[in-house]
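input
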Amino acid sequence: MIGRILGISGYLIRSFLLSLAGLLYILLTLAFYIIFFDPRQRTPDSDYFVLVLGIFGLGLSFLVTISVAARANKAVHFPLLVRLESRIEYLTSVFLAAFGFSIAIQLLVGISALLINGPTLTIVELLTIPLTWIAGNILFITLALHATDLVTRDWSRVYVFAALGLLLYLNSELDLISGWISSLLNSLGRTLISAGLTEIGSALFDVASWLSQEEPTIIDQIVSVIFWPFNAISDAYISGGFTLLQALAPAILLVYATALFLLASKFFARKDLFLTE
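output
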């Protein structure tokens, strides 16, 4: 099974590299390096090096996954797909091909920036940077799989990205939402009390008071826990090192990626395949 997966992954990478899309990504990478890491200048700021290349790797992983999955979804690969013992082998091959291409490009740019631009990095940073990059890339690759026609089943991508969008919105606007709901419940409570429904109105007042309190609510705590790995990694790089607790953040990102990949596998295994010509 491993041999089949690696063989298909190598075939997809080779096919992608020799395509117009693969050449375009390489040219865009060269343009990115020239713009953000001018070879004529040094880049001594390690925070700039980590942040810019980290964001570049996340975006590259997402876009490459969509491109590789689009090639894997072509009808010419149908004879290859039906000979596999499980569809999951094919999906894993797509994942490995996208990961191999994106991480190779990211590391190549990073090594070039280290040798030519010379940012000052400590030994600890040199050891932790690749781990966080790999964890972030894997997470974005599994997320990108849900955006592709290869994996999407019915309205699955709408549900996945709507849930993600809701979490992002709650993370940024939770206080505003809580205040709006609190005001709405207060108005409804006054209306019910004036209508003689005192007990229900008082209960709504209690809920509104709970939502408007300054202490973190249960929703605040849940959303904070979900986004904690991202905040922990950013705080660690800003402070110049990982604490023992922050070092667990990349592992939690891999847990998120595993859950997304299992969900993608479930969709892909049970859908009717309509490969493109």
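quick obs: Residues 156-194 form the longest helix (39 residues).
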